[in-house]
Design brief:
Elements (H helix, E strand, L loop, with lengths): L2 H26 L12 E2 L5 E2 L2 H4 L11 H4 L2 H4 L8 H4 L36 H4 L4 H4 L1 H10 L8 E4 L3 E2 L6 H8 L1 E7 L6 H10 L15 H4 L4 H4 L34 H4 L6 E4 L4 E4 L6 H4 L5 H4 L10 H4 L2 H4 L2 H5 L8 H4 L5 H4 L8 E3 L6 H6 L14 E4 L5 E8 L2 E5 L6 E3 L17 H5 L10
Parallel strand pairs: 3-5
Antiparallel strand pairs: 1-2, 4-5, 6-7, 8-9, 9-10, 10-11, 11-12
Bound molecules: heme C (7 copies).
Length: 454
């Protein structure tokens, strides 16, 4: 071989090696683009975390998870001491979302947090949420399967993910309330083109088990616990102060935030956005949702709240969804419900009573009551319950923590902003209802304020 060539080749190899080392150094020192010194956060147990070196400025996720106590690794996993990104991010739970249902057992569900029920499912959302129809879509699947004669009865057998009832439901109770087998199989299409379309168009999103995909970043947040607890609308961008998060890229929550003050717009990320077309086996998105649905939940409620042609009374748009829908309806009650009707409990009379009787109340006797515990999770304006208070209860005896009897009146406190309302009672009013007809549909024949609203 020519000697000149050999020298040039050797030089090239040396140069490449040098570049490689410089590159590595640069990568290793990436943190210097964010901070001059490593930022050490010392937790109460003495452990040190350095995630804030790069993520300096990130918002505290919520007042009940202070940075000084929780750090970052308790929720996210990863290597707290590492200063290079690859090592720091090794083993991150759920990538961008540690509250995806595939990882909540390790993150939110750690012992002492939100999964350790000690038999009390009311305080264990990590156990109950995966069983809810919002996670399984069991009802929608059964309706379609029955309509197209893929099955002969309406017993629910399928879910978007395979799911076994491991918590509350005994078989007997399931038969009574659940209308589901105790183990739902994952819905797999048999190659039938209609089933394939159903799987792709109807089961891939809009439920709590949706997985993360780079092509469809919205689904990252409209899933798991964040589907409700992290305010997010399709296409949102990051507005906070963490310099590592690209604030021009859609598909990030506006803030690193968890909240229980869930506005109706959040539930509407999935609900009231359009109609399912059975003939096309497609979801047809509404095109009349105002811009304010993302920017200002308080504006344009009449246009925003329900799909056009829905009927509703004043309170059904004045209040937020979570003012009426209870903890067990929304986060599951530990039973594997086969459809939404089975999981849905609240009735108009739970607040308004009937011509025969007022709403039902229970006196809180002990500080340890679940209702007292649950009432502490809202903002400062929301009055916490205490022994002696009277709280409304549903037909299955679940407390409605925001509906109370005070000074002879029935009052409601908004869970979103603490605002106090008087709840008018049907008994003693001029209401012309038939006490036997208590479905919203029948009330709406007289109490419908949607008319005239476009
Ligand atoms: C060397 C700087 C650096 C350190 C140290 C670091 N990160 Fe990051 N992190 C980044 C950057 C930059 C991004 C933006 C996404 C990317 O470039 O991968 C990011 C993104 C993330 C994401 C979003 C992941 C995704 O898939 O979008 C999470 C969650 C995260 N970091 C958590 C942590 C935690 C927890 C720690 C500490 C254990 C940590 N980071 C330490 C630089 C760092
Ligand atoms: C109580 C659990 C919890 C703690 C503690 C926590 N996070 Fe998060 N983090 C989440 C959840 C849930 C999400 C997804 C929702 C969101 O983006 O706000 C998230 C998202 C993120 C993201 C991705 C944001 C994006 O838009 O790409 C980063 C980066 C991140 N966290 C960094 C951190 C750092 C750094 C710390 C420590 C200072 C920390 N987190 C502490 C729960 C937590
Ligand atoms: C990620 C999408 C998604 C979000 C976000 C969501 N839901 Fe749902 N929800 C569903 C689906 C899907 C069903 C019905 C499944 C079926 O019929 O099989 C459902 C059913 C319900 C039901 C009837 C059954 C039940 O479980 O009680 C109520 C009530 C309900 N949702 C209220 C809410 C409220 C209130 C919020 C906000 C706090 C909310 N939803 C947020 C997807 C969602
Ligand atoms: C479909 C919406 C929705 C989803 C999904 C959801 N939550 Fe909730 N969560 C709520 C609502 C609404 C409340 C307020 C309950 C009330 O009124 O008492 C709440 C309350 C809470 C509370 C306060 C205490 C309590 O139980 O009332 C915690 C903690 C909580 N959720 C954790 C979680 C965790 C962990 C997950 C995921 C495993 C999760 N949530 C999923 C809607 C949701
Ligand atoms: C003023 C109280 C109130 C508000 C506010 C409210 N709901 Fe309801 N919702 C009810 C009642 C009561 C029923 C049961 C209707 C019946 O008895 O026929 C119901 C039924 C439902 C159902 C099941 C009915 C079905 O078959 O579709 C879903 C899903 C639902 N609501 C979701 C929501 C969502 C999402 C919001 C907010 C965007 C919301 N609700 C706001 C009181 C309310
Ligand atoms: C969680 C409690 C709650 C539930 C459930 C509830 N309401 Fe209401 N309702 C209220 C409150 C609070 C007001 C007073 C609103 C205000 O003052 O703005 C109200 C007011 C009303 C009014 C009087 C409106 C007016 O014009 O003054 C009617 C009619 C009504 N509700 C019908 C219904 C119907 C029908 C349902 C079932 C679909 C229902 N409500 C479910 C709390 C509730
Ligand atoms: C046949 C028509 C009709 C039906 C059906 C009906 N209502 Fe009424 N309702 C009325 C009338 C009329 C009034 C009296 C309005 C007034 O005094 O200004 C009234 C009054 C009320 C009030 C008291 C409002 C106030 O401000 O004092 C409530 C609450 C109410 N109805 C709830 C319901 C509920 C819940 C249902 C369904 C179970 C229902 N109504 C069904 C006609 C009806």
């Amino acid at each position: 071989m020519n000697r000149k060539f050999l020298i040039i080749a050797l030089n090239l190899i040396f140069l490449l090696g040098l570049l490689e080392i410089v590159g590595l150094l640069e990568k290793h020192e990436e943190w210097r683009t964010f901070a001059e010194e490593p930022v050490n956060l010392t937790l109460p147990n003495g452990q040190v975390e350095r995630c804030l070196t790069c993520h300096q400025g990130i918002e505290e996720i919520s007042p009940s998870h202070p940075i000084e106590t929780f750090g970052c690794v308790s929720c996210h996993g990863g290597n707290g001491l590492a200063l290079d990104k690859e090592r720091a991010h090794e083993g991150l739970r759920g990538g961008r979302n540690p509250a995806a249902l595939s990882v909540t057992n390790e993150s939110c569900g750690q012992s002492g947090c939100h999964g350790d029920s000690n038999g009390n499912l009311y305080r264990s959302p990590v156990e109950t949420v995966p069983l809810s129809p919002m996670a399984t879509k069991a009802g929608e699947i059964t309706e379609i399967a029955f309509t197209f004669l893929w099955q002969k009865d309406r017993l629910s057998r399928y879910s978007v993910e395979r799911i076994t009832d491991t918590s509350g439901g005994t078989k007997e109770l399931l038969a009574k309330r659940g209308l589901a087998t105790s183990e739902l199989q994952e819905f797999v299409s048999s190659g039938n083109p209609l089933q394939e379309k159903f799987k792709q168009n109807c089961l891939a999103s809009c439920h709590l088990n949706t997985g993360y995909s780079k092509e469809n970043p919205d689904e990252n947040y409209l899933a798991g616990c964040t589907a409700c607890h992290t305010p997010y609308r399709k296409g949102s961008t990051y507005q906070g102060d963490d310099p590592t998060i690209d604030s021009s890229e859609p598909g990030h929550a506006p803030y690193h935030q968890l909240t229980t003050e869930i506005p109706y717009t959040q539930c509407n990320s999935c609900h009231n956005q359009g109609i399912h077309s059975i003939s096309k086996m497609e979801f047809l998105q509404r095109d009349d949702v105002p811009e304010s649905a993302i920017t200002d939940p308080q504006a344009d409620r009449n246009e925003n709240y329900y799909i056009p042609l829905a009927q509703y009374s004043l309170c059904e748009i004045e209040l937020d969804c979570i003012d009426c829908h209870t903890r067990n309806e929304v986060m599951g009650d530990g039973f594997l419900h086969g459809n939404k009707a089975s999981a849905q409990t609240i009735k108009c009379y739970d607040c308004h009573g009937t011509t025969q009787q007022e709403a039902n109340f229970e006196m809180i006797e002990s500080q340890k009551h679940d209702a007292v515990w649950a009432s502490r999770y809202f903002g400062d304006e929301f009055p916490e319950l205490k022994p002696g208070d009277k709280v409304a209860v549903t037909d299955i005896n679940e407390p409605m923590i925001n509906v109370r009897r005070e000074d002879g009146q029935v009052v409601l406190y908004s869970k979103v902003n603490g605002k106090k309302y008087i709840v008018p009672q049907v008994k003693g009013s001029n209401c012309e209802q038939n006490p036997q007809e208590q479905n919203a549909e029948s009330c709406h024949t007289c109490h419908d304020i949607s008319e005239g609203i476009k």
